Amino acid sequence: MVFSSMVFLFAFVPVVFALYFAVPKVLKNTILFIVSLFFYAWGEPKYILLMLTSIGAAYFTGLFADKKKYGKTVALTATVLAVVWNMGLLLFFKYTPFFVENTNSLFGTVFKVPEIALPVGISFYSFQSLSYVIDVYRGEVKPQKNFITLGTYVALFPQLVAGPIVRYIDIEKQLNSDRRFSAEQFASGVKRFAVGLAKKALLANNIYILFDEISHADSSKLSVGAAWLGTIAYTFQIYFDFSGYSDMAIGMGRMLGFDFLENFNYPYISQSITEFWRRWHMSLSSWFRDYVYIPLGGNRKGKVRQCVNIMIVWCLTGFWHGANWNFLLWGLYFGVLLLVEKLLLLKHLQTLPKVLQHIYALFFIVIGWGIFAFEDTAQLKSNFANMFGLGHLPIWNEQTSLWFTQFLPLMIVLIVGSTPLMDTLHQKFNEKFPNAYQLYIEPVCTAAMLILSTAYLASSAFNPFLYFRF
Amino acid sequence: MRKDDIKRNKLPAKIMTGVFIGYLAVFSLGTFLLKDRDFSEMENRPLAQKPKFSADAVMSGEFGSGTEKYMSDQIFLKDSMMSLKTSFDLMSGRTFQNGVYFGSNGYLLQRFDRSSQFDQNMQMICDFADSCSVPVGMILVPNSIEVNADKLPHGAVTDKQLDIKESEKMENYATHFDQFIDPYERLIQLQNDGIQAFYRTDHHWTASAARATLDMWLDECGITGTDAPYEYISGYDFYGTLYSKVPAAGIKPDNFGYYFNPEGVYNIEYVMEGRTADTFVDKDQLDKKDKYGALLGGNFALLHITSNAEGGRKLVVVKDSYANAMLPMLADKFSEIWVADLRYYHTGTISELVADNGADQVLFIHNFDFINEDRNFVWLG
């Protein structure tokens, strides 16, 4: 099930909320666990067993990863088992077809490429399970003895399918039934959810139309400008799509009494690629930092080793996004950029005027999404050729003008929405006219966003979340 | 997020909670309690119904996707929701949506993108004309976007049908026919005289445009123009196919009308369907949304029309839906007409139709869009 579907909004949510708030505290986790499994099974019932097995694996390995109780050998074995299980799942379900295909083309073999449907959210929940077991091993959290509580953590429907990747340590207390329930908490969740829904339904889906038209246009209609416009459209789409989902997850979590950490912090206002990755998909970057980069030695084993570690992390980050060469290339691209910045560029960058720093960062971000957008290598190449004037296209044409003018107002909204401007405005309003703002403006805006988003979702054919593939 | 926006006063939080609960309640109760609709007049398509529940359907995920479709089709205020979306897009400057431009005076204009299919189709029709044993005529109607080009919004991009018409290729195509009718100038003139040549909300032309064009062809054939004592029957509010694509709020309906000859006696045989009718207009359909579809009740593989027309002329027509507005008047000039729609007529060739029935001539009635896109001309034989 996805958040932006009518089934979720008008069947699942009303029923789940009614149940959740009707039952006493001791039963709330049970309800959450059951409805989360239902949420997961809705689209792909066959993988529900996989999910349950995965929770079981996390539960038992977590129990035995307790060094104090079982000693180092047992705890380490349990942790290694958890790593093997979760990585095995990912490798098998996500990467088998890719490896078989490439083995075939590399060695001329003819192994049958297996048809494996990717279980939704596997990249997210396997990372969550793993972080829990490792944290138990490190002694940072106590093992969870209650199966349902642990199941609730792994399967919690707000962040189940597209993140943020919530660490057990961050919501341990709330999972153990220490959740705040108040009108304020609920209302702040509503606002956040409405913002996320609007980002998805009104902004991301609409700018996708531009990307889609340009990426499928006949080359006679294209121009250099159009190729840039298309790639920029994708840049906006992926941000508003993904951060919109995170907003909805955080909002939904808040309504249910959880506080998830933020996942995005206005990534497009960054002044360097290093800063971009501190602001983009923060829960993933910090996961790789805590569970890959630092265990590999981080920066404690010398410059050379640090560079190697950075490249390992970024290859993995790229590959995590999908079993395809373009994602690997995308990871490498950022690994190299980050290294270059770290080793020589960053010092000089900071002496430049801010405008130039922004342009520098945005240029490389957009190029990055150009790599990310096309899984088809031929399309990827031709898009870059078009962008850099190697595609025998005019610089600009009438069709490009049409695309540009039709989507200019939306683009302006997207640019403003990528900055903290609206947030600042909200605060200013709230300080100056707290009554008018809180009693009228905010509720009316929230209702408008909800209704308008529903109108868009009910009438458009296109509505997948980009990050579902991962 | 911010601690300071959670003030001591609980009223704002209660209002916000109320907003959310109200939103969920209105849409879920509205969706589940109101009676399901079978068909959407606005979108001109059948709507998804409740999926069947079975273990198999659940396990295959069919039940899930069926429920998604069902709910988004039956969502509370679906039509208003679609209008809201289209209108909001329009307000944000999107004067081009779903392949349709919002022109001035309420005209919806479907964009024309020339494809290589156009020349392939024309070549096939020319080859047929060359090999045909009887005279072959063609009426090639430009679309609304060409005739109403002056109404396009600023910066609109569309391939000019005029450029195609004025090309050498087209001059060459025209030489293959005994009559080749291009009504562009005539339709412009009609509009200048204050007569609507195309519906504003539909991709079809009006009966008046069809009649004026028919007169041009009759003139070329040396037959007197349409002269039956026609009554123009109109007054039907009509929201056409283009409106279904972009149902913005505030679009005014067209006034659908047709010419009725009180002296005409017709027998229309729907050959494949095995039924007959004695009028060209399906009155039941006039109560529904797609008024243009009332003409002959839509498109069929093969019609055999006989009438009390004088002169004993026999005609074979190969056509798309534009011809439906013209056939009622054509039947007053030809006592026997076979009408083939190549999208559906695949059981015989047109040559056979001509030979078997001793037709005197063949007439192609098509619009530019159709020639540009259709892939069924191989069935000409």
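qc> The radius of gyration of chain A is 23 Å.
qc> done
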